[in-house]
Specification:
185 residues, alpha+beta, 5-stranded mixed sheet, globular
Length: 185
């Protein structure tokens, strides 16, 4: 099966599933996207490729793309721990942006547009449903050593409409050996 057939299958799938309601919808989309990226030798979407891989592997080592993101998150957490009064001033934290998968959303939108696929998935309400399902898939599928400062990053099981995660550090930040985060959608 060539690229054109896979893109046509994706088009039919996205037309049929305007709103994702099951984890299998997310997995199917990501597997098919990965096939397209591989067949095209397309490296324009490193974050999208990373999530495609992460969704099907129970243990994931870091990639260069994820290392840069995790370094930013770590530095943001260091600032939060050093000065908790600054949390939330001037916008949301890097962890919150990661929880809502904003970089993934941007790359997914560009990918869908490049291959002339429906982009309704990346609209606000549809995206939140996609993220909820993806987080359930990624729960307990840790990223080992995503950067030099972080031992492990993991989403944790959470109630429907919630996301939880934990970042374990290689060395304590002050008295903290880990950082937990969570939010509701």
């Amino acid at each position: 099966m060539g690229r054109i057939e896979i893109v046509e299958k994706l088009n039919r799938f996205l037309d049929k599933h305007k709103l994702f309601t099951e984890e299998c919808h997310v997995i199917y989309l990501l597997v098919e996207i990965r096939k397209v990226l591989d067949r095209e030798n397309n490296h324009k979407y490193p974050i999208l490729r990373f999530y495609c891989n992460w969704s099907v592997h129970t243990d994931k080592d870091s990639t260069q793309e994820m290392e840069a993101i995790m370094k930013d998150i770590y530095q943001d957490i260091e600032k939060q721990i050093a000065n908790p009064a600054l949390v939330g001033i001037g916008g949301k934290t890097k962890v919150i942006g990661f929880m809502y998968m904003e970089d993934l959303q941007a790359e997914m939108t560009k990918f869908l547009k490049e291959y002339k696929l429906p982009i309704s998935l990346t609209g606000k309400n549809n995206w939140l449903e996609f993220v909820k399902l993806l987080v359930k898939i990624l729960a307990d599928q840790p990223i080992k050593t995503p950067c030099t400062d972080i031992k492990q990053f993991a989403f944790l099981p959470a109630a429907s409409g919630c996301v939880r995660g934990r970042i374990d550090f290689n060395q304590n930040i002050g008295e903290y050996s880990y950082y937990e985060f969570g939010n509701t959608y």
